[in-house]
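Researcher: Re-running this chain for the archive, since the previous output was lost when a drive failed. Same request as before.
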Amino acid sequence: MKSPSRQLTLELPLEPSFGREDFLVSPTNAAAFDMFERWPDWPGRSLLLLGPTGSGKSHLGAIWAERAGARILAASELGRADVPTLAASGALLIEDADRAGAAPGGLAEAEFFHLLNLMRESGGYLAVTARAWPDAWGLATRDLLSRLRLAPAVEIGEPDDALVRAVLVKLFMDRQLTVDASVVEYLALRIERSLAAARSIVLTLDQEALAAGRAVTRPMASEVLRRLDLA
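Model: Regenerated structure tokens:
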């Protein structure tokens, strides 16, 4: 008996959509979302957005950047950037400030401190994302650490079960995949609790369904998770 044939598929993953309508608000991110919605009525000219990997910091930052007309720069690029030009932009989002220390050359602390001063003098707005509070960044510049400690901060938590389920449903809908609620429930209880993990498993199941020429089912989800050592 011949096994079912599998179709060849092109790997065309959808880029994450960072539109405001794509951000799902839940108790774990509501306070952060509200703070960014209040812009420019912030408690200061700078704001730290803190939270674990996969919690939606980049998404929320991108929503604000679109609204504020802000430039977006990875913190690891600060050492090669024209700081006065950045400060003159009026609004700026610095991403992954705590990760830059692991990059070649580390975080450009002198440039970062200069940027903070210039943006305060010019009246610009600065948002900074990181996984942890500044004390955990390994900063050597005491003045920079002191300045960041005084900056207003808002935290975004790991997605809760309800948010993971909602994100899975939306991702399946975005790919025009019809799945039973039991599939969503099964996945939500087994994947890593992050938005990145949800995107990854939906992409994998979409490709599996295309290759097999059949719908996404719980047995298919179980088999994919088993192959990924997540079952």
